[in-house]
């Protein structure tokens, strides 16, 4: 690990101005960096990698609504019958597209389903069609609810609302 002090190249130092002002100006321009990749002779590759682990929001941008997970679009299915199996869910949901993953959690004590499942699709269109068609439908005699697992909230305004 290396500690490095970077001074912006655009700073012009006045050698003749030997006062507190020059020291303060110099301190404002110094950036202290710690960690790997900042040693002497290292290139500034870290500045090019700023968006490395970001998720592509696609056509839906910053607007409120469903949000893509790292691998796909996940639906949260509630009120699932306790004796439902993965085959029951995949049979019902595979009509709308290829299912990438199904997560079913079981209760440790009883061994039955906890009442919810997560179903992942590769594309937004498949997940949207399944959500629209199956929300409120019957699965093993129970009405299931289908909604997005990850949802972006409304944009936060920078102005604070006054409370009276």
> What is the CATH homologous superfamily assignment of the domain at 73-148?
RRM (RNA recognition motif) domain
Mean pLDDT: 79
**Biggest sheet features:** 4 strands, antiparallel
What is the tally of helical segments? 3
Low-pLDDT runs of 5+ residues are: none
Instruction: Please provide the ordered H/E string of secondary-structure elements.
Output: EHEEEHEEHEEEE
What is the second-level CATH architecture of the domain at 73-148?
A: 2-Layer Sandwich
**Percent helix:** 10-25%
CATH fold name of the domain at 73-148 = Alpha-Beta Plaits
The counted number of beta strands is 10
- SS strand fraction: 25-35%
Derived structural class? alpha+beta
Shape: elongated
Query: What strand line-up does the widest sheet have?
Result: 5-6-4-9
- Please give the alpha-carbon distance between the first and last residues: 53 Å
């Amino acid at each position: 690990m290396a500690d490095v002090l970077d001074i912006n190249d655009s700073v012009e130092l006045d050698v003749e101005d030997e006062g507190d002002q020059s020291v303060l100006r110099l301190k404002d321009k110094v950036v202290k960096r710690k960690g790997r990749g900042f040693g002497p002779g290292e290139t500034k590759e870290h500045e090019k990698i700023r968006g490395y682990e970001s998720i592509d929001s696609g056509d839906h941008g910053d607007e409120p609504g469903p949000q893509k997970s790292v691998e796909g679009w996940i639906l949260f299915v509630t009120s699932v019958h306790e004796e439902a199996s993965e085959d029951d869910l995949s049979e019902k949901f595979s009509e709308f597209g290829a299912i990438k993953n199904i997560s079913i959690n079981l209760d440790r004590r009883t061994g039955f389903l906890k009442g919810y499942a997560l179903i992942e699709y590769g594309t937004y269109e498949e997940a949207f069609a399944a959500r629209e068609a199956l929300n409120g439908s019957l699965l093993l005699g129970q009405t299931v609810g289908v909604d997005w697992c990850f949802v972006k909230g409304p944009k936060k305004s920078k102005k604070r609302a006054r409370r009276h």
